[in-house]
Amino acid sequence: MLKDDFLIGDNMPEKMPPGLASRVVVSIVVGVAWLVFLIIFLAFYANNFNVYQNIAIFLASVLVVGAILGPMWVYWGIKSVERWGRGPARRRRKR
After folding, report:
1. What is the pTM of this model?
2. In angstroms, rounded to a whole number, what is the distance separating the alpha carbons of residues 23 and 80?
3. Torsion angle of the four alpha carbons 67, 70, 72, 77, in this order, in degrees rounded to the nearest 10
4. Which sign, positive or negative, has the C-alpha torsion 56, 61, 65, 71?
5. Distances (CA, A) of 22 to 19, 43, 67, 79, 87
6. How far apart are CA 76 and CA 71, in angstroms?
7. What φ, ψ does residue 90 adopt, rounded to 5°?
8. Helix, strand, or coil here: 33?
C-alpha cells in the first residue's frame, strides 16, 4: 500500500482524494489557533467582561471557526461524493 492510499469500505485501498491533506492541515491550524485565542483571552482579558459577555465571546469564536471550516469541508464533501459516485446516504424504512 502506498503512502497516499487509505482504506475505504471493504478494506480496498484507494488514492487519497485531492485536497484532503490541505484541508486537514487548515483544520489543525485553525483548531490550534482557536485554543491559543481562548487561553490568551481567558488569561488576560476575561476579567474585564462579565459572565454573559465572556459566553458571547466564546460563542462568537465558535461561529468564526465554523465559518472558516464549514464551507471548506462541505465543498470537499460535495466534490468527493461526485468523485466516488455515491449519492447521499439515505436510510429506507422497512415496512
Report:
1. 0.70
2. 13
3. -170
4. positive
5. 6, 31, 17, 15, 24
6. 8
7. -125, 135
8. helix
CA distance 70 to 19: 15
Biggest CA–CA distance in the chain, Å, is: 60
Q: Which three cell numbers stand for residue 79?
A: 466534490
Q: Which amino acid is at 62?
A: V
CB-CB contact of 38 with 55 (8 Å): no
Residue type, 15: K
pLDDT, tens digit, 9 for 90 and up, residues 46-95? 999 999 999 999 999 999 999 999 999 999 888 887 766 655 555 555 65
